[in-house]
Write a structure and sequence with these properties.
Organism (chains A, B): Rhodococcus erythropolis (strain PR4 / NBRC 100887)
Keywords (chains A, B): DNA-binding, Transcription, Transcription regulation
CATH topology of the largest domain in chain A: Tetracycline Repressor, domain 2
Pfam family, one (chains A, B): TetR_N
Distance between the termini of chain A: 50 Å
DNA-binding region (chains A, B): 39-58
Strand content of chain A: under 5%
Helix content of chain A: 55-70%
Protein name (chains A, B): Putative TetR family transcriptional regulator
Number of helices of chain A: 9
Largest interface: A-B, 45 and 43 residues
Oligomer: homodimer
Shape of chain A: elongated
Chain lengths: 206, 206
Amino acid sequence: MVKTESPARIGRPRDPGKDEAVLLAARTLLAEVGYQQTTISAIARTAGVNTPAIYRRWSSREALIEEAVHGPGGHPLPRSTGDLRVDLTTWVHIFLVRAARPAARAGVPGLLADSRTAEARQRLLAIGAPVRAAFQDLLDDAVRRGEIPAGADAMFLFDLLAGTTTMQGLTRGLEGQDRFVDALARSLYVLAAHPADAVGTEAVGQ
Amino acid sequence: MVKTESPARIGRPRDPGKDEAVLLAARTLLAEVGYQQTTISAIARTAGVNTPAIYRRWSSREALIEEAVHGPGGHPLPRSTGDLRVDLTTWVHIFLVRAARPAARAGVPGLLADSRTAEARQRLLAIGAPVRAAFQDLLDDAVRRGEIPAGADAMFLFDLLAGTTTMQGLTRGLEGQDRFVDALARSLYVLAAHPADAVGTEAVGQ
C-alpha cells in the first residue's frame, strides 16, 4: 500500500502517511458526527493538514469519503487457503465487518444518495477493481484445483456478496453474524458449484 | 388495501384516499427534490392536507417516507403461476423495478442513514412482514408440488433477494436489468433447490 518516495519529497505531491491520516480522520468523523458534517475542512482540521493538500489528492469530498469507506482500512483480504468454502467464509466475514463499521454505516447511505453520477460510478468501479479481480482469481483457482466446475459468473457472485453484506451491515450490523456469514458463504459456494450452463441438465430438487 | 369506512367519517380518524394522496405526494417530492427536502410540511402542501392529519396517521417523517418507499405503490405481488422459476423471475423483476424508482433511489439512502434505531427496525419489519410471508408461501407451495425439496431458508433467501435488488436498483437502476433479473432469479432457484441439509451429501462440482 505504501508508495516508495524519498523523504525529501514528503508532502509534495504525495505523502502516504498524510493520506492515511486523512482517511483515518474521515472515518473517525463519519462515525462520530455523521455524513453531512464530515466536510473537507473538518477532515483537514482533524488530520492536521490543510485543505489544498486534500484537494491535491482527492478530486472531491465524495471521492475522499468513498476511499475512506470502501478502501481496505485495516481489513486486507487474505490469501487463499486452497479450500473455497473456507475462503468464501473469510471473505463474507470481512465484507460484513467492513459494512458494519461505524464509518460505513454513516458513510455508505450518504454516498448512495450523493454518488449516482457516471463519474461517481467510475470512481467506485476503480476502487473496487482490485477486490473484484481477487475474487475472480479465487474462483479461477478453485476451478483449476477441480473444486468447482468452470462457468461461474464471478462478477455476479461478487455483486451478490457485496450487495447482501452491505445491506446486512447497514441495517443489522453484526447482529446474528455467525448465522448470516455461514448462510451467505454456503450460498456463494453452491452457486459457484452450479454454474448456469449446468442447470436444466441436472435434476435439481428431485 | 382500502379500509371500509362510512363516508360520514372520512378524514377522521382515517381516510384511505387521503392516505394514498399523502404517500403519492411523498414519492413525488422524493423524486423531485430529494430526501432532505421531503419534509412533512412539503408533503402536506403537495397532498393538500394539513400537517396534523399526517401526524394522526404516521408517527414521524421517517415512518411516512418508509411507507411511501417500501409500500406496494402500484407494484403488487403476483399470484403464483405454479412454476417456481417463473415466479422467482417475476419477484426479482418487481423488487428491482421498485428499488430503481426515483422515489426509492432518493429515499432509501436517507432512510438507511436515519433509521438505524430499534424503533425504525420494528417499523420496517412490520411493513415487510406481508411480503416475507408471501415469499415463504411461494417456497412452501413449491415444496408441496415437489418442485424443490423441503428445508430452504426462505427468510435468508428473502434477504438475499431484497439486499441484492436494493443495491442494484440504487447503484445501477434498470441498466442491464434482463441479465441481472435472470441471474438472480436463477440463483434463488438453485439455492431453494439445494437446501443446507443436502450439502455434503451431494457431489457438488464433480
